[in-house]
Specification:
With 138 residues, the chain is of the alpha+beta class. It contains three helices and six strands; from the N terminus they run H-E-E-E-E-H-E-E-H. The protein has a six-stranded antiparallel β-sheet. A hairpin with a 5-residue loop joins strand 2 and strand 3. The longest helix has 27 residues. The chain starts with a helix and ends with a helix.
Length: 138
Amino acid sequence: MSNATLFKEYLDKKGIVPETRNSETSVSFEFQQKLKTGASGRLLVVLEEDTLASIYALDYISLSNTARKEYMCKVLNELNIKYTYFKFYLSTENIVVLQCSLPIRNNTFSADLIFNLLGNVLGTMEDEYSGIMKAMLS
């Protein structure tokens, strides 16, 4: 059974119905999510050919002033130093992305672990949202 199927069954048991997309090499599960601050965005779980699981927080923060791009990259790099397993970066569309990736080897996939990491990614975005916004607007 594929990791995507295992994760889908796990979500089904929890009554969670994400938007699902299939490609030749991966399956993605998309969740619309709202932060306590009111900001809305997406959480995306991408399971690639049973070898990699990646979780992304997308569309919560958009850099509207591209003149501050270099400064914001420094701010995000400071967050990358703070967090071992998470990576913050600006996408080509100047959207702040939070990513967590986990290699999967020798049938070690755990739907529960992916779901818990999904919660950790959301919690980290919650924790860092105001600081990122403050840096962007200062």
